[in-house]
Amino acid sequence: MASREPNCLFCKIVAGEVPAEIVREGERTIAFRDINPQAPTHVLIVPREHVATAAEAAHADVGLLDEIAREAEEVAKVDGVAETGYRLIFNTGTGAGQTVFHVHGHVLGGRGLEWPPG
């Protein structure tokens, strides 16, 4: 892995040091089930390289957020929610609820998702 933070939980999952239920692995991303799911489908998609937030990813690596969005569609297909609908969420910063500062997209589906969210 090109860039890694030694105390980052998601970097440790990417490195195989912390177990996770892997859904998909790509060249640049890895998708795994959230340990505290908020919907029947709740999968996190993270880049293999450490980037702290979606805002940083937008400036640091052209195409990274696009790749996460493509992986979200594949995860939705694997979990059977692509046709009924799913939500892809990036929490950016503590005020938005980001608790692990390694950019990650939440794929949520399999139940009604109200608007506006929490």
Mean pLDDT: 94
CATH class: Alpha Beta
CATH superfamily: HIT-like
Strand content: 15-25%
Question: Got a strand count?
Answer: 5
Rg value: 14 Å
Number of domains: 1
Question: Structural class of the secondary structure composition?
Answer: alpha+beta
Determine the N-to-C terminus distance: 35 Å
The rough form would be described as: globular
Topology pattern, helix = H, strand = E: HEEEHHEE
For the sheet with most strands, the description reads:
5 strands, antiparallel
Number of helices: 3
* CATH topology value: HIT family, subunit A
Write the layout of secondary structure elements.
Layout: H1 9-14, E1 22-25, E2 29-33, E3 41-47, H2 54-60, H3 64-78, E4 86-89, E5 105-109
Antiparallel strand pairs: 1-2, 2-3, 3-5, 4-5
Protein name: Histidine triad nucleotide-binding protein
Pfam family, one: HIT
Domain HIT: 9-118
Could you please describe the fold and organization of this structure?
This protein has 118 residues and is an alpha+beta fold. It has one domain: HIT family, subunit A (2-Layer Sandwich). 24% of the residues lie in helices and 21% in strands. Strands 1-2-3-5-4 form a 5-stranded antiparallel beta sheet, with helices on one face. A hairpin with a 7-residue loop joins strand 2 and strand 3. The radius of gyration is 14 Å and the shape is globular.
